[in-house]
Design brief:
Bound molecules: nickel (II) ion, manganese (II) ion
Strand content: 25-35%
Structural class: alpha/beta
Number of helices: 6
Distance between the termini: 6 Å
Strand order of the largest sheet: 6-5-4-3-2-1-16
Largest sheet: 7 strands, mixed
Shape: globular
Helix content: 10-25%
């Protein structure tokens, strides 16, 4: 399984001969290392409806025919916008050609906000991807919650993608606590530095976890990590 960080909460995942894309916020992201039309993907996985996550989903899905995997309400919205979708919901898992996908809870909001209206898109979520004998956990935008311990008990997490930006999500201290609850082997911080309000020092976050044997892999936009 190969991960390429594309800035903010966007990761491209190569697994099982397929290309997956999490939360493709590229247009309007000052740190995005690629343009949306440079990507060719099979699946787009969305954690929630906010603009910094849905991002370029519709344009990429229409151009490539990629299937959008999302919680039911958000998937329904994407279908109305012309995307192929696969609806799921929290607690449910499905075996896709590349591996098993399971939706996990996340404490956050979920709505598509335009200049004219706010369209609520159900509950936000996180994702577990089990493929090639590895487990990837993407927490999505969330605060710290105790059931991360349950997720860690039920799944042997190789890599956890955790937000550290604070203000909208967990900050570095809560994310470090989350990594302990999850018993993740490696943590990749995300959702920081994109905007002034979520500036963080990922090195400080890494330093808090290293003594406990939890590896922190800091990726700059465009960098890859193989697990
Ligand atoms: Ni959000
Ligand atoms: Mn966000």
């Amino acid at each position: 399984m190969q991960l390429r960080f594309l800035g903010h909460a966007c990761f491209e995942v190569g697994v099982g001969g397929k290309r997956l894309l999490f939360d493709p916020f590229l247009s309007g992201n000052p740190l995005a290392p690629v343009a949306p039309d440079q990507l060719d993907v099979d699946y787009i996985l969305l954690t929630h409806g906010h603009g910094d996550h849905v991002g370029d989903t519709i344009a990429i899905a229409r151009r490539t025919g990629a299937i959008v995997i999302a919680p039911f309400e958000l998937a329904s919205y994407c279908r109305q916008q012309g995307a192929n979708v696969h609806e799921m919901h929290i607690g449910g898992a499905f075996m896709f050609p590349f591996g098993r996908v399971k939706l996990t809870p996340a404490w956050h909001g979920s709505a598509v906000v335009t200049d004219e209206q706010i369209i609520y898109t159900g509950n936000p979520c996180g994702y577990l991807i089990e493929a090639e004998g590895k487990v990837l956990y993407n927490a999505g935008d969330t605060g710290l919650f105790g059931d991360m311990r349950l997720i860690g008990e039920r799944h042997r997490i190789d890599v956890a993608l955790l937000p550290i930006g604070d203000n909208f999500t967990m900050g570095p201290d809560d994310a470090a606590y989350a990594a302990r609850l999850l018993r993740a082997r490696t943590v990749i911080p995300m959702h920081y530095d994109t905007f002034e309000r979520i500036k963080q020092d990922p090195e400080r976050f890494a330093a808090a976890l290293r003594p406990e044997g939890i590896a922190v892999q800091i990726l700059r936009p465009g960098e890859t990590f193989t697990l």
